[in-house]
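Hi all, long-time lurker, first post. I run a small reading group and we've been trying to get comfortable going from sequence to structure in the token notation. Rather than ask abstract questions, I figured I'd post a concrete chain and ask someone more experienced to write out its structure so we can walk through it together at our next meeting. Sequence below, copied exactly:
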Amino acid sequence: MSDLPRAFGPAVMTALLRSSIEDFQVTELPAFAPSGDGEHLLVTVEKRGQNTVQVAKWLAQWAGVGEAAVSYAGQKDRHALTVQRFSIHLPGKQSPDPAGFVAPGVRVLEWHRHNRKLQRGALTGNRFLLVMRQLQGERAAVEARLAQIAARGLPNWFGEQRFGHAGGNIGQALAMFSGRRVRRDQRSILLSAARSQLFNQVLAARVAAGNWDTGLDGEVWLLNGSRSVFGPEPFTAELAARLEAFDIHPSGPLWGAGPLRSAGAARVVEEAAVADDLSLRLRAGLEQAELRQERRALRLKPEGLAWRWLEEDCLELRFALPPGCYATALVHELGEVVDASQLARSAGPAPCEDAAGAD
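-- Answer (accepted) --
Happy to help. Here is the structure in token form:
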């Protein structure tokens, strides 16, 4: 994300993230309570250094069902300590013994019967604990930037995870649009990457112009905490108050077939941001795939953003984000933060080893 603009000015720090698994913790916030009975088993697991798809396969083996019988609300980072739910369809079967589930880096925390399959996106958000080490920067400047983010929110970027290693998903998406056959699950990933690229370009144009969190003429608004949109309509004092209260957000396009919903100045910005040759090819591929035009909020507000200094050069952040939002979007606003999990590290352990401890 280093090539994307920052909403609040130049970087105020550099640091390492994910020096250890415990430095990046994610806890899924469920959208509902278990019903207590039904054909499905809701399983909450803690996974350490494992990806969601692999855990789903292990759960299927444990329960003696096919992989298609296991579902989850969302994929979580591999290089992290995460807590998330899975559901296993067990029609007419007893729940397997949790003591019999053995998998490296995974343990079962809770299990309950439920009357419905766990659907993708069935969560209210994710809670994060991040620890950044070897931090260089003035403490006052870092805290001032965090205070700005807490007050105004931040641009709702799609994170680097969407684009694959070295951004390779975009090239693969172009190849798919040109006729290369791909698996169904890979097709979904590549379509999402293409949409995310175009959205980020529109958001980058709005950030560069300083209007990513304000209303333009012809704006389409998205209701906070939902996918409901309205507009364009005249910008009134009532809309301004709702915008300031984070009840609504300006939105950008998730590209697909059909006309843009925006109008006026907002539409001019959106069309200009995706008018280059690469964007036109991505747009054509998405339209041919018959995805419909949708919208995504241009900004997000971290809930409960709090921080503490574990050492002079070691900062812990805690916050929650809505579904589909990326913790790296917040980190990007602070500065140049290197993902240590991607580096070949031969040195000893980093300082402040107790960083993941909660208050």
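A couple of things your group might point at:
The longest strand covers residues 123-136.
Confidence is low (pLDDT under 50) at residues 344-359.
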